[in-house]
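Why do we care about 3D structure at all? Because function follows from shape, and shape follows, mostly, from sequence. That is the central idea of this module. The next example makes it concrete: a single protein chain, its amino acid sequence, and then its structure expressed as tokens.
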Amino acid sequence: PAEVTIADRRLAAGFVAATGAVEVAVHGWDVARACGQDRQLPPSLAEELYELSVLFGHERDPPDLLAPQTSGPVDS
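And the structure:
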């Protein structure tokens, strides 16, 4: 499989791409909300990205790093 090297670390290219997809989706949504836009991710994409995102955690991450899962949209 293809690898990406960052400093002295090697990562699978697919892992790097998945991380980028989650980052773009989350921060894109965040910027849209900050600009007053209500742009929701398609539910199937949100579910797939969520399933990927749980792979990025580490056992040493603080337990409150992520908010609890919700069952629907959050209005602010």
